[in-house]
Amino acid sequence: MSDTMSQGDPFILNVGETIDREELIAPSARVVVGVSGGLDSVVLLDVLAALAGADGRGYDLMVAHLDHALRDAAAADAAFVAELADSYHLPCTVQRRDVAAVAAETGQSIETAARMVRYEFLGGLARTFGAACVAVAHHADDNVETVLHRLLRGTHLRGLAGMPIRRPMGGGPIDLVRPLLPYRRDEIRAYAQRRHLRWREDETNRDTQYRRNFIRHELLPLLRSRFNPRVDEALMRLAGSAGDVEDHLARLGAETFSHARLPDAPPGGVAMDARSLGQHPQIVITYAMRVALETLGAPLAAVTGEHLRQMAALAIDSESPAVALPGGLAARRCGDRIVIA
User: Fold this and answer.
1) C-alpha distances in Å from residue 50, one per residue of 60, 62, 81, 176, 260
2) I need a labelling partner for 106 at 20 to 30 A (CA). Which of 90, 234, 274, 330 fits?
3) Are residues 298 and 262 in the same domain?
């Protein structure tokens, strides 16, 4: 499907510039491409295949598809993706997982369980394949929906920043990258139509019992018609501003932790000077505490804002109680020291 002529398409050139500017994929890197068979992932695969053929890139691509066992059409979706990968002469791995059973076992929603299982699959395959990164097809409209969802649910600054274009995956030096994140759904569809691409339609994407679908099909149209026709752009600006502030606070937190860290920590732990930390605003202390936990390899996904606020209180009030943390860790005030172990 991908050919030399396609490499001159402006959309491909733009995505290539995004990859270079954000340093998402190095030349000749092995890349696992998550492909559901829907419009967005089919476009992502086509673009990466075109770029792989460009001089100096030479990406080594593997197609990955997870059958969530949630739809009658799931087997047909998997067959479509396998055939699609074959048309690009690319290897393809398909795995089936009973997401409904995982949700029942863990008490999670179907959406949350599906996301967890999907990233476990993609990350595991990347490690097996020796890949540098996993590429997924989230785009700007997905990010708008994510920011609005988090805003309504309640979130912190990191959540308001939306989805990062690149983030590390657990279990090794593998990045999750989103080359299409700056681009709107309309741009992606227009490219697919120019290239005469085929894709699968997932009827569950119209089911508004799922919160993400309700936001997409009900809430955002209502906000556009009743409040602000450019609410998408407003939310993207909010995410950009939150991301800038988040980056600044993360740098301040790293510097604050570095200055406060003490050499005489217990084995497998971290010790910090409480007086040094206490000179900073509480929000900066919370970011320093996050860096401390990251240094210890704590399960950051399970660390809440409340955990970090309680840890920051240790630097401000010497009488603050010890804080139990995920991963069997605890933070406590010991005189003028804060110890996490």
Assistant:
1) 12, 14, 17, 20, 49
2) 330
3) yes
Give the domain range for residue 47: 4-224
Q: Which of 120, 124, 145, 116 is nearest to 40 (CA)?
A: 145
Residues in contact with 214: Cβ distance below 8 Å, sequence separation at least 6, in sequence order: 208
Estimate the crossing angle of helix 39-52 against helix 185-194, to 10 degrees. Answer: 60
pTM recorded for the entire structure:
0.85
Whether residue 55 is found in the same domain as residue 158: yes
Per-residue pLDDT of the chain (341 residues; tens, 9 = 90+): 545 446 689 999 999 999 999 999 999 999 999 999 999 999 999 999 999 988 779 999 999 999 998 888 899 999 999 999 999 999 999 999 998 898 888 888 888 888 889 999 999 999 999 999 999 999 999 999 999 999 998 888 889 999 999 998 865 689 999 999 999 999 999 999 999 999 998 887 888 988 899 999 999 999 999 999 999 999 999 999 999 999 999 999 999 999 999 999 999 999 999 999 999 999 999 999 999 999 998 888 788 889 999 999 999 999 999 999 998 999 999 999 999 99
Q: Which of 244, 194, 255 is nearest to 50 (CA)?
A: 194
Strands (E), 89-237: 92-96, 133-135, 166-169, 174-177
Specify the CATH number for the domain of residue 162: 3.40.50.620
Residue 162 tokens, joined:
């939306």
Closest CA to 165 of 45, 76, 247, 57: 247
How long is the chain?
341
Tell me how far apart the alpha carbons of residues 149 and 147 are, in angstroms, rounded to a whole number.
5
Q: Are 289 and 327 in contact (CB under 8 A)?
A: no
Contact 314, 274 (CB under 8 A): yes
Q: How many domains does the chain divide into?
A: 2
Q: For 232, left (φ over 0), alpha (ψ -120 to 50), or beta?
A: alpha
- Give the integer Cα–Cα distance in Å for 321 and 319: 6
The SS3 call for residue 7 is helix
Considering the domain architecture, whether residues 166 and 311 belong to the same structural domain is answered as no
